[in-house]
Write a structure and sequence with these properties.
single chain; alpha/beta; 7-stranded mixed β-sheet; 6-stranded parallel β-sheet; 11 helices
């Protein structure tokens, strides 16, 4: 079969690799029908050190179950399933608390021996991980259903952890697919004012359609001043940081109001960050977020996609075959594409 392998920053290839085989009785093999490139895939695309073995790429998928292990009872060969970016048994102590990305038997597909930008995928802990799509679902809904494997539910996670609700003002930093998903999720959570901080007009236009009430194109101190002006100098109740770089974090603590919350879902490209009096402590601000526990949210979000309440698949603005995966990375890296759908 063919799969995506990254050998160093900027070096993405599609190569023939062995088909995955069942490793444990709790595994399943899935033929991937929809995958995509994530903004977080661009971090290794920029910084991965050269490796002779290569790194398997991709962590979002929809596919058809082709084989199941002897202990798998919830899935049937032929089922169409959503595969979240992390596998989990959905029964351990952390899964029961909803923190499925910390499952004691779990792991992450990106960089695993079998990852999702491929023709086939090994799904560990298949009963707890994969979620069946109802039979007969319109194929046109598949891109939106694919966002439930990561991007839309990452935006939902940010809004949920931030406590977004009616009466709250929200600032979303970043106009990538996660940021736009966070706008849509904040609207679903009932936010009255949603300020999208981004500077790409084609993306911020979609953000307005998703529910943004204001767009701030300025960055840094100018961007902070603009948000403060919109909020009468108070700042916002919830900041969703969907970038992962230090300037975005600095903007976040600049616009959060006293007693507010910063919810980070952009994978942070740093370990040290200001948390002292001038940033968080002095404002009594809360810092939350983390890898989205999408498996805990899928069942609730699935009907919203199926009945058309939300259309998160609108973040996909290009579609390419797996053989053109290098072009998909280039398009996203150059901001020529928001998010690229891949059809293996």
């Amino acid at each position: 079969m063919r799969a995506t392998v990254m050998y160093k920053a900027g070096d993405v290839r599609v190569e023939d690799v062995p088909d995955p085989v069942l490793q444990a009785p709790t595994d399943a093999i899935v033929r991937v029908t929809y995958a995509c490139v994530c903004g977080s895939d661009l971090h290794p695309y920029h910084s991965l050190e050269e490796t002779s073995a290569g790194r398997r790429m991709g962590h979002e998928a929809i596919g058809v179950v082709e084989e199941i292990g002897s202990d798998v009872t919830r899935l049937t060969v032929g089922d169409t399933v959503i595969v979240p970016f992390a596998w989990s048994d959905n029964t351990c102590v952390f899964c029961r608390d909803g923190v499925t990305t910390s499952c004691v038997h779990g792991g992450f597909f990106d960089g695993a021996p079998s990852a999702t930008q491929a023709e086939k995928l090994l799904v560990p802990q298949a009963d707890g991980t994969a979620v069946v799509v109802p039979g007969g679902t319109d194929e046109a809904l598949m891109p939106s259903l694919l966002t439930l494997s990561d991007v839309y539910l990452t935006g939902h996670h940010a809004a949920h952890k931030g406590g977004v609700r009616a009466g709250r003002t929200v600032a979303v930093i970043g106009d990538g697919a996660v940021g736009l998903s966070a706008v849509l999720a904040s609207k679903q959570h009932g936010a009255d004012t949603i300020i999208l901080m981004g500077r790409h007009e084609d993306r911020t236009s979609l953000g307005r359609e998703f529910g943004a009430t204001h767009v701030v194109t300025e960055r840094g101190e100018e961007g902070v001043a603009k948000v403060l002006a919109i909020t009468g100098g108070e700042g916002v109740h919830v900041v969703i940081e969907a970038v992962g770089h230090m300037p975005a974090y600095e903007q976040a603590y600049g616009v959060v109001r006293p007693g507010g919350v910063i919810s980070r879902v952009g994978v942070p490209q740093y370990e040290e960050a200001p948390v002292g009096f001038a940033s968080l402590f002095g404002k009594n601000a809360t810092l939350t977020g983390g890898p989205a526990t999408v498996r805990a949210y899928i069942e609730a979000a699935l009907p919203q996609v199926l009945d058309g309440t939300i259309e998160p698949g609108r973040v996909f603005d290009r579609e390419l075959p797996l053989s053109d995966i290098a072009e998909a990375y280039r398009l996203m890296d150059s901001r020529e594409a928001l998010k690229v759908l891949i059809r293996p």
